[in-house]
Each structure stands twice: as structure tokens, then as C-alpha cells.
Design goal:
The chain is mostly beta strands and 443 residues long. The protein has 4 helices and 26 strands. Strands 10, 11, 15, 17, 18, 21 and 23 form a 7-stranded mixed β-sheet that branches. 49% of the residues are buried. The protein binds copper (II) ion. Residues 60, 78, 136, 182, 184, 189, 194 line the site of copper (II) ion.
Length: 443
């Protein structure tokens, strides 16, 4: 293997360190290009230096999440967690700190077209299943990647064994909303929770077209401009698979019969609780899961909110992806939806506009959509509520199949909906501050 493309590093440090690999590639350890070019792509030769390099550090391990009806018996999962902010990325430190403490869904990855991306994945192993020696990978679904080495399909490249690290390199050239997942024994690992959204902001971002400076695509005319964006992953959870993996029992995947229907790994009304972002004051959902098999500390195991907050008149971009195994039809009654992107492609053929307006979105497994809507004016006659930002109108972004608005076949709190549903809150006055990152919450 050419070390310029990344490296597998053991905990014993007999192998060259990650620092050595990055130096060899002309990349500073702080994550900026310091000299010359970064060589990548098998046999493709040198390429121009990119504007910047973003480095992300992720761990893969197991853990538990809390779903309706299983509050006292949390559901076993595999997953990814972002440890970039931890200054110590040694395998020994990561194992001691995070093994058995994963999350679902995976962190949302936010990249910029043309920038170099490094994602270092460390496989910490599984606490509940020390007998399972499964590797993990990162597969960027739908990404037109030239290098199989970084594609994460283990049968044709490499995977990351327990106790090892691998740095994946990407330079995305196509804007859009994608998804990412582990591709190792993927039917199992995807259902077990190793799924998330990755999106690429277009090079057009930062220019001003009309009143917008942020866009879903390089549209040239501002037609995909937005004020706020939200990344929401549609998924299902089948208890049999998760309990079977926990208890060392066989599962027949073709018997798939999920009982939970989730947005970002949560069921309504948990979907409307804030994010759990470390270091972000005010963002703590309070969703904790006792980690019975590792220690007594509760985990912030479902950190990704699906709450959509907007001011009247703002244009909102929903970055949607389905990484379950079923098709879902989603509705937003009261607000028309404008579909401008599909599977990381602008819906346009030459000069022909292929975007469409709908009241029902259909997403199959492995599909993504970019959906714009305009937040309506505040209307005192509509259903409303109030939170720390003040009074709001509420619109429900929900699955159109009522069976998927339940959990374990039961309704939610008070006999209301559960499952695949969240709220769009449109506030009276302009109370929502400017968004500084995707899916930011303010309650
Ligand atoms: Cu995996």
C-alpha cells in the first residue's frame, strides 16, 4: 500500500505513525496543506493542492439506545462517534474512553466541494460481543470516488480491524446530499446503526445570488438557495436483529419486520428534543441510555435532533436520506415541498428544470432528496405551541403510513403519534438566530 493514501496504524507503534503518513503526504498534522500537492487516486498522479484540508476523527464501537417501550431494556447497537475534539487520538486512549459508548445515528459530515477531507477511523471493538472480531469501514454511498482503497467496500479494498486506525482521503467534486455507512457485513452493520448523512456544500457557497449565499447545488441562478438546512436520516429498527446480536443468536435478515421508525435514531416526540453537542451551551436533549454492560455512566447515545425551527418567510433546505430497508413516504401537511435534488444530483437536464413540487416524498433505501420549503407567515388560527424562543405554529413532517407513527405497535405518549415524525416550528416574529451549523437547535 502506498502510504501517501493513508495507513493502518497499530497500538504498538511499530508501524509508522499517522504523523509520518501525513508528513509524507505534505499535510501538516493540524490539518492544513503546508507544501506542494497531495497525491491521491491510484495511478492518477499529482493534483493541484486544494484550498484547505478538513480532518475528522471517528471511532466505531457498540453501545445501547433508548427507544419507546424499551426504556428499561435498551436496544443494542453498533455505531460511529465523532472524537475529533479529543486531543488524544491514540488507540489506547480512545479504547479506554469510548469503547462501548457509541451513538445512533452517526455524526453528520459537512464538507465543502474541492476541499481535501481526511477521516481517521479507529475500531475500538465491541464490549458486549468480545467474540465478534468484526472490522469496520467508511463507505460514502453514491460518491463517485476514483480510488477503491477509500471506498470502504472490504471485499475489494481494506477494512479496519479492532485496535487499528485507517485514514480515508477524499476530495469531493460534486455537491449534494449523500449518506455514509459501514460496509463490513453491511446488511448487519447498517441495521445495527452504522449509518449517517454526509453532504457536500457547493463551490457556489459564499457568493451572493438574490438574497442567498448558501446553496444546495451549483445552480448558477440561486434556485437552490436556503436560509437554514437540516439533515435528517430515515431509518427502521428491528428488535430481533439487535437482540440477536446482543445474545449471540442467529437472525434471518429476510424476516425483516421493524417495530421502530426513526428520524436521526429517535422516535417522536424525542425527535423534537435538542441536539446533544458537547461544548454547545443549551443543546442537551437529556436523552441518556444506561450502559448496563460497560459501566454505570449514561451515554448520550442519540445526539442528533430532527427539530426544524425557522422564522416566517425563510427558505429551509431538508437534506434527507433513507438508510433503512424500506421505502418511506413523507408528508408536511400545510407546506408545499419543492424537490430540487435527488441522489446528490441537481434536478436539471441542461436548461430543463426537472425539480418538482409535491405533498408526498417517496424515498427508497439508499436514496437521498434535497427539499426546499418556505416557512409560512405566523397564523394565530393554526395549531401552535411555545418553547424558550416563544410562540410558534407547528407543522408535522411525518410518515404518511400511520403504522409507522407507532413504536412496538403502540402509540406514543398520551395515545399520540410516535415513530417517524418531527415538528417544523415557525415562530411569531424573527426569533430564531442565524444558523451556524446544520440542524442547529435553539431550545
Ligand atoms: Cu461495521
Amino acid at each position: 500500500m502506498d502510504h501517501r493514501h493513508g495507513g493502518i496504524i497499530g497500538p504498538d507503534q511499530r508501524a509508522p505513525s499517522r504523523r509520518d503518513f501525513l508528513k509524507a503526504a505534505g499535510i501538516g498534522v493540524a490539518g492544513t496543506v503546508v507544501a506542494g500537492t497531495v497525491v491521491g487516486g491510484l495511478g492518477r498522479g499529482a493534483r493541484p493542492a486544494s484550498a484547505a484540508t478538513t480532518s475528522v476523527s471517528l471511532i466505531a464501537t457498540d453501545g445501547y439506545i433508548t427507544l419507546p417501550g424499551r426504556e428499561s431494556n435498551p436496544v443494542y447497537v453498533f455505531g460511529f462517534r465523532d472524537v475529533t475534539s479529543d486531543p488524544d487520538h491514540s488507540v489506547s486512549h480512545l479504547v479506554a474512553t469510548y469503547k462501548g459508548h457509541t451513538q445512533m445515528s452517526a455524526p453528520t459530515l459537512d464538507f465543502l466541494e474541492g476541499n481535501d477531507m481526511q477521516i481517521t477511523l479507529t475500531n475500538l471493538g465491541l464490549v458486549q460481543r468480545p467474540d465478534l472480531t468484526d472490522s469496520h469501514t467508511i463507505h460514502w454511498h453514491g460518491f463517485d470516488i476514483p480510488s477503491p482503497l477509500n471506498d470502504g467496500v472490504p471485499e475489494v479494498s481494506v477494512a479496519v480491524p479492532i485496535g487499528r486506525q485507517l485514514t480515508y482521503f477524499y476530495r469531493p467534486h460534486r455537491a449534494g446530499t449523500y449518506m455514509w455507512h459501514c460496509h463490513f457485513e453491511d446488511v448487519e452493520h447498517v441495521q445495527m446503526g452504522m449509518t449517517g448523512i454526509v453532504f457536500v456544500r457547493p463551490a457556489q457557497d459564499g457568493t451572493t445570488i438574490g438574497r442567498f449565499s448558501k446553496f444546495a447545488y451549483n445552480d448558477g441562478d440561486g434556485s437552490t438557495g436556503y436560509d437554514r438546512h437540516f439533515a435528517i436520516l430515515l431509518n427502521e429498527v428491528w428488535s430481533h436483529y439487535h437482540d440477536g446480536d446482543r445474545d449471540i443468536q442467529e437472525t434471518i435478515p429476510t424476516d425483516y419486520n421493524p417495530e421502530w421508525f426513526t428520524l436521526n435514531g429517535r422516535c417522536y416526540p424525542q425527535t423534537t428534543l435538542p441536539n446533544d453537542r458537547p461544548g454547545s451551551p443549551g443543546e442537551s436533549s437529556g436523552i441518556t441510555t444506561p450502559n448496563a454492560n460497560y459501566d454505570d455512566a449514561p451515554d448520550k447515545s442519540q445526539p442528533n435532533s430532527s427539530l426544524i425551527q425557522a422564522n416566517p418567510g425563510e427558505r429551509v433546505l431538508l437534506r434527507l436520506a433513507d438508510l433503512g430497508y424500506q421505502q418511506h413516504s413523507m408528508q408536511l401537511p400545510g407546506i408545499p415541498m419543492h424537490v430540487v435534488g435527488q441522489d446528490a444530483s441537481l434536478l436539471r437536464d441542461g436548461a430543463k428544470d426537472l425539480s418538482y413540487w409535491t405533498n408526498t416524498l417517496y424515498l427508497g433505501p439508499g436514496e437521498a432528496r434535497d427539499v426546499l420549503f418556505d416557512a409560512p407567515a405566523y397564523n394565530a388560527l393554526r395549531p401552535s405551541g411555545s418553547d424558550s424562543l416563544g410562540p410558534y405554529n407547528v407543522y408535522y413532517f411525518k410518515n404518511r403510513d400511520w403504522r409507522r407513527l407507532s413504536s412496538l405497535g403502540a402509540p406514543g405518549p398520551g395515545g399520540g403519534p410516535s415513530g417517524m415524525m418531527t415538528e417544523v416550528r415557525v415562530y411569531q416574529g424573527s426569533r430564531v438566530p442565524p444558523q451556524t451549523y446544520v440542524s442547529q437547535t435553539y431550545v
